[in-house]
């Protein structure tokens, strides 16, 4: 049922797919009957209110959360430790300790550990790749700084570089722009588009900022417990859909030219 | 100064201390990063149950203590990951369970064993050349395996979820680390004692973290702290006729406070 909206054509590989996925915590559904397809070479945005299940959805795609019901496919297989190797993941809140004794470069290098293999140390080749990644997010000058001494936004950029470092086929980003200033944000989304165009990678990215998602995603899903819209960004802003996603008492908050009528603020679970 | 080394038991104690220092320091580096201090306490105390069982059965208490400690540390890790309990609740339970078993085993063996005291508080007189071999073998295993798996252990300590998605064998690494933590506890217990050994699974790493932000210097400083504490503590306890384990722990705590204050001035 839920597959309205434009499909990108049948030739492209499906990188991530959910079919009738249900997830609940303690007798409460968090995701209900989710259908979703993310194709190779697209930036797929997921929007929705706080608590709408966005982070949970990403964890389902990665196989970190097992659904009670439904089918999850990552590159056509069940998500497991082998399929995940092709994924770069940026969690919403990194559990990383601020005072962890590593440099920014060390953190980016972690993104390459799975390529380096057991019992080996990162060599000069890996350091080169990591430095190049840092340069692309304008953090090269901070490479040798202790991670804990960077600002929150700078740390987020380092995490992004880490997720990109292994040149994954699929990037899964949970609120990637948290704490990142708008100039760096624009650069970052440009970088994502460049990765998509050059290497034909896919990006699944979550945000509660509709403006950001509509400006940068090829297709989007609006999620609040269920998926209310799944297609191209423009038509997401029909008031009817917005109301379903964000609830009854909408406060007007202008995001960009395209979503003047949309709004988000207080929301309730419509369950 | 020379006479102290003419005593075989003191030579053995120094040998043990020098071999244990890098092991405890490197393990403490990860204990501090992973906030596992309380696991160290729990595992150390649970070794008591194993020692008592060894005495009861008349077999090597070190052997039974290793089995106990490894079982308990892995059980704590398992419950921490799968149960609805937090790890410290699991520790609280196992800690008490293993200690209580120990008390029961002692009661059953109906001879109150004086050696048991040595295990609780450390007894450098009791270190035999056999113990030195065990320390060398297990300590060597701990150090070599940490060396080989260093980057993986570092990543998992940094961010478990991201490490998992990156294909790190997180569950294996967690249980592996808990196992070598248990080994380190058991090989240190004769010299430092069950009650206090967990201090040395925390203090060297914690002290080093006060004055550096990089992991290689941090490990080097932790090893230095552990060496100074054990060698200095043994010397001091010998001349002042004090309990060796306690003296080592007090000295390491003093070093921690000095580095803590030095760390405040650094920034
Ligand atoms: N581990 C968990 N145990 C129990 N409940 C959970 C757990 N993780 C998430 N939830 C619940 O699931 C719901 C969805 O959470 P989720 O983090 O997926 O939302 P989100 O859309 O990412 O929200 P936000 O915009 O705040 O990041 C919430 O009601 C939350 O309380
Ligand atoms: Mg979230």
Question: How would you explain this protein's 3D organization?
Answer:
The complex is a heterodimer of chains A (271) and B (267). By secondary structure, chain A is α/β, with parallel strands linked by helices. Helix content of chain A is 30%, strand content 23%. Chain A has helices at 54-62, 104-110, 113-116, 124-136, 152-165, 182-199, 210-216, 239-246, and strands at residues 14-25, 28-39, 43-47, 69-74, 87-90, 170-174, 202-207, 219-224, 226-231. In chain A, a hairpin with a 1-residue loop joins β8 (219-224) and β9 (226-231). In chain A, α2 packs parallel to α5 and α4 (124-136) packs across α5 (152-165). Chain A is globular, with a radius of gyration of 19 Å. The model of chain A is unreliable at 1-9 and 248-271 (pLDDT under 50). The longest helix of chain B is centred in the N-terminal third of the chain and has 26 residues, at 8-33. Chain B has 14 helices and no strands. In chain B, 52% of the residues are buried. With 267 residues, chain B is an all-alpha fold. Chain A binds chain B through residues 62, 64, 81-82, 84-85, 87, 89-91, 94-97, 99-103, 106-107, 110-111, 113-114, 116, 118-119, 121-122, 146, 148-149, 162, 166, 172, and chain B through 33, 148-149, 151-152, 154-155, 157-169, 209, 212-215, 218.
Query: How many beta-strand runs of chain A?
Result: 9
- Average residue pLDDT of chain B: 91
The CATH C-level name of chain B is Mainly Alpha
The total of beta strands of chain B comes to 0
Helix-strand sequence of chain B? HHHHHHHHHHHHHH
Largest interface in this structure: A-B, 36 and 26 residues
Q: Please give the CATH architecture of chain B.
A: Orthogonal Bundle
> Over all CA atoms, what is the radius of gyration of chain A?
19 Å
Q: Which molecules are bound in this entry?
A: adenosine-5'-triphosphate, magnesium ion
Strand portion of chain A, in percent?
Answer: 15-25%
Percent range for helical residues of chain A?
25-40%
Under CATH, the topology of chain B can be stated as ABC transporter involved in vitamin B12 uptake, BtuC
CATH superfamily of chain B: ABC transporter involved in vitamin B12 uptake, BtuC
Structural class of chain B: mainly alpha
Distance between the termini of chain B: 40 Å
